[in-house]
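We were asked to recover a plausible sequence for a given structure. The inputs and outputs are reproduced exactly as logged, with field labels preserved.

PROBLEM: sequence recovery
POSITIONS: 305
GIVEN STRUCTURE:
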């Protein structure tokens, strides 16, 4: 199979994407699609406004659509990530769409049997031997099993997103218009001025820095998963010039784009390492785990810097 991953993703309707990741880290965000994270080595903190979990090797986390979440993995920790965007007619969608099933963490013995087979398929086979149609079939089976498991869990309290939550949900649905801060502020029910202040307080970074992080990570994925030239990647990520792209990339990754691509060629893991972002997340009190799955309803969603 000589098609590039980007072409394969389009060929199968944009339904499924997966990747082997090391140094998984990302501040709060939300997006379409169900997400499954399997820890392979090391541990990671997975954050939502309701709870903070430390996920250990062998454990699997399921995150429903449009749920605000973030992650901070131990240095050099490795994981498998699956994202599935349903067409809308699958039988398991109504159950998994319920907010009470927003996030689940399962030990190995609790996981559907199909998860073990899927994990082995995606971590061991060479890329050219993987069949994306069969991977989609695996995920359908897995999510059907997850729906049955989730339906037996005690319901979580229903929470209405605050202004910050509405902003993150709007960003996740407006990827092609990330520069339009005024539109995101309007979706959050705030003025642009107040939105800018709130976003910086809650995230510890400006809105423009957050969008730069999203763009740089998109560029990193293109560098490792396609043969596109850096010049083409710069255009696709919305940069006005390669000079501005190089400057932002180096500030976040602490490597030049060409250096990053060269070092990534011999690794099957997509490296999320961003020293400045790691330092930011490690300093945030609300991300620190006191005990497994501690409710966070009485704690602030974002830290003030």
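RECOVERED SEQUENCE:
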């Amino acid at each position: 199979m000589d098609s590039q991953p980007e072409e394969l993703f389009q060929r199968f309707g944009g339904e499924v994407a997966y990747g082997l990741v090391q140094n998984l880290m990302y501040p709060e965000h939300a997006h379409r699609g169900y997400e499954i994270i399997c820890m392979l080595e090391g541990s990671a903190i997975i954050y939502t406004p309701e709870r903070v979990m430390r996920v250990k090797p062998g454990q699997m986390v399921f995150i429903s659509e449009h749920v605000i979440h973030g992650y901070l993995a131990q240095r050099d920790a490795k994981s498998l990530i699956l994202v599935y965007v349903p067409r809308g007619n699958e039988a398991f969608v109504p159950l998994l769409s319920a907010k009470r099933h927003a996030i689940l963490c399962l030990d190995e013995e609790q996981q559907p049997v199909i998860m073990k087979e899927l994990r082995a398929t995606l971590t061991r086979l060479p890329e050219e031997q993987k069949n994306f149609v069969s991977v989609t079939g695996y995920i359908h089976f897995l999510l059907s099993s997850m729906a049955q498991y989730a339906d037996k869990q005690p319901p979580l309290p229903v929470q209405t997103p605050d202004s910050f939550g509405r902003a993150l949900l709007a960003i996740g649905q407006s990827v092609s218009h990330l520069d339009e801060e005024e539109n995101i502020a309007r979706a959050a029910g705030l003025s642009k001025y107040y939105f800018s202040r709130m976003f910086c307080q809650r995230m510890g970074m400006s809105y423009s820095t957050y969008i730069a992080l999203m763009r740089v990570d998109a560029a990193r994925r293109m560098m490792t998963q396609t043969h596109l030239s850096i010049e083409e990647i710069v255009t696709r990520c919305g940069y006005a010039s390669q000079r501005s792209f190089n400057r932002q990339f180096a500030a976040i990754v602490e490597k030049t784009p060409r250096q990053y691509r060269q070092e990534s060629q011999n690794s099957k893991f997509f490296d999320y390492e961003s020293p400045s972002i790691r330092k930011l997340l490690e300093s945030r009190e609300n991300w620190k785990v006191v005990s497994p799955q501690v409710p966070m309803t009485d704690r602030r969603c974002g830290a003030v810097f």
